Every structure is written in structure tokens, then in C-alpha cells.
Amino acid sequence: MNKIEFTPKLIKYTLKFLCRILIFGSVLILYIIDRKWITEFLSKPFGFFGVTPLHIVWGIFMCIMLFHLLPAKTQARTMAWLKMKEENYEPVEKHDELELLRFVQEQNKKAWTVMLVWLIFNAFWAFLYLNDIIEESELFLLSAFYFLSDYICILFYCPFQSNIMKNKCCVNCRIYDWGHFMMFTPMLFIKNFFCWSLFFTAVVVLIKWEITYTKHPERFWEGSNQNLKCINCKDKTCQYKKQYQKR
Fold this sequence. Notes:
Layout: H1 8-43, H2 53-69, H3 79-82, H4 97-130, H5 136-155, H6 159-165, H7 179-183, H8 193-215, H9 239-246
Helix pairs in contact: 1-5, 2-8
């Protein structure tokens, strides 16, 4: 078994993963202690007075998404996200345009398969909620779990990568920035400012990604972008995942 090389990006993403465990753990503890309070908070109209732990969690979620939308320094991000930026596109000379078109068509089919699977899976939770089997607190806990699972997918195991997309790593992932939309899908069902602001901001993040992919697919394929080739990868955030796959 090869020894893991702890690159700056791998260390940073490991720390982020630990932070997400802490956030999910905090939400879980809050749910166990007083889930009725969470339900009441998410059921009431938006208020400007008083800061609660849920306001803080909402603020963390929102800031993460705004960092994806607003111009900012990008050094701390991996090529998995940075590939959408023009400055990170290093063309492969004389790449095959027909192969690029085939790649785009294939990836689009797989991406929308993922979307269909995701919507069907979450329709189950919507059914439970709309039939009063679960409440707002359970949907919020589910979103917090999805928030944690996003980094489980990046660092350890991604069912969409393994079973549908078949991409070799996050750097080459067609749907990398769909994570926020997936995290906050359960929030769509709760008619509350905090919930809808998270969900619809996530939709904007997804739309921005899809527009960029549609206009500049060459940035997303290793056959046309040198920076996506393994030999040029500096992030190496796939190492835990590779160790897991070897077991």
C-alpha cells in the first residue's frame, strides 16, 4: 500500500472534513436535545432579532455558497472547482474536437441520470414530510448530513462517481459543484426564509456551473485541458479514496 502524501490541499480538505463532522455533530446534538425547538424555528416567519445556533449554522452554509459565486482569491480551492475558470485552462495542443463532443454528450447523460436518481431519492423524504411522518427538524438534520457527506464523497467514497459518472477523480468530475444543490434539496420543502434562501442560492451555484460547462466544455476534459491530467495534479486529494479502493 502506497504511503499517503499529505499535500497542502489534502491537509486543508481533511481539516474541512473534521469541521464538517463538528457542525453535523452539533446539529445532531441540538436535534437530540430539543428537536421541537428546531421545528418551531424553521416553521416561524423570518425574524431579525436574536441570534441562535441555527442562525450561525445558516450563516456558515450561506457563506460557503457565496464564496463560490463572488470573485475571491482561489488559491485555497482545488482544481476540481478551479477548472471552470479561464485562467486555469491550459489547452492540449490539437485536441480532438469530435472526442470532446462525445465526452460532453456522454457526461451530460450521466449527469442527468444522477439528477434523476437524486430527485427520486429525495422525493421519498418529501413524501414523509408532506404526510406528517417527519417534521422540519428531520429535514434540517438530513441537510446537515448531506453537508458532511459532500466531503465523504470528495475524500473517501462517492456513490455517484463509482456507479454512474465513472470519472477517475474529483478533478475530472462533471458535477463537482452540484454539491450545494444536493445538500439543500430538503430545504425546498420547508416554507421558511432560512430554508428557501439556502436552496435557491444553491440553485444559482448550480446554474453558474452549468452555464460555464455549456459555454466552455474544453475546460472540463483532461483531453483538452492539461491541468486535469494526473501528471499535472498538485492537489492529490484522491489519496484516501485510492487507499480505500485498494482494500
